[in-house]
Amino acid sequence: MSLLKISHLRKQFDDLEVLKDISLEVEKGEVLSIIGPSGSGKSTLLRCATGLEKPDGGEIIYQGTFGLVFQNFNLFPHYSVLKNITDAPLKVQKRKKDEVLKEARELLKKMGLADKEKAYPFQLSGGQQQRVSIARALAMNPDILFFDEPTSALDPELTGEILKVIKDLAAEHMTMVIVTHEMNFAKNVSDKVIFMDKGVIAEEGTPEEVFGSDNVRMKEFLGKFAE
Ligand SMILES: Nc1ncnc2c1ncn2[C@@H]1O[C@H](COP(=O)(O)OP(=O)(O)OP(=O)(O)O)[C@@H](O)[C@H]1O
Ligand SMILES: [Mg+2]
């Protein structure tokens, strides 16, 4: 079953065509990684898919709900960890307080943050803040979780922490779309990889297919990581 179907998506900023006829599908339980050079349109694609940016053309069809985890965590600075996680389930989804609190504490435990529920974001490391923001997204019980470079603001040790959390979610068959510059991670955790270049999908397939591709731009791109 396809949880998300994007057809012929187009987006431009003034004269700059950032997305040119992008079509893709995300199946239930699938992990899709999106890789590609800076400026190729990865974030714009995610922003259009999640309604943060208005497309100029094409169609986006969801079967279900989505959550979003940003590069810079975007936690509410004046809310405690627990309130960051429970606020939307209580106020937006209007779920029962007992149930929401119980679930939030379970998520914190799963993220290794059981002792941090009263802390404020500024009291946490970058990796801890990112785990809170993943817990916050999961608290809404989304059908698909989007990540835009979830580790690029973190140093290597904390990066590993977050990649492990995402890997564990993949093992639980959480459907995820991940924009990442972590090539080994994309190779190991994804069911499908998309290589974007200058606003188009230049290559797509299994990690083996994409990373083994003869596409010149793809090779050039991967070469930069090998240096
Ligand atoms: N709000 C905006 N207004 C004008 N131009 C924009 C806007 N957002 C993005 N762009 C331009 O669109 C292009 C694609 O940007 P995008 O952020 O999608 O790239 P990206 O693939 O995510 O890059 P990176 O790997 O550096 O995050 C860039 O040339 C960028 O300057
Ligand atoms: Mg980006």
Sheet-strand content, in percent, reads 25-35%
Major beta-sheet overview: 6 strands, mixed
Low-pLDDT regions: none
- Mean pLDDT across the residues is 95
Question: Span between N and C termini?
Answer: 40 Å
Number of DSSP strands?
9
Please, could you describe this protein's structure?
The structure is a single chain. By secondary structure, this protein is α/β, with parallel strands linked by helices. The strands form 2 sheets. Strands 5-6-7-3-8-9 form a 6-stranded mixed sheet, with helices on both faces. The protein has a 3-stranded antiparallel sheet with strand order 2-1-4, covered by helices on one side. The radius of gyration is 18 Å and the shape is globular. The protein binds adenosine-5'-triphosphate (ATP) and magnesium ion. Adenosine-5'-triphosphate (ATP) binds next to helix 1.
Keywords for this structure?
227 residues, alpha/beta, 8 helices, binds adenosine-5'-triphosphate, 9 strands, binds magnesium ion, globular
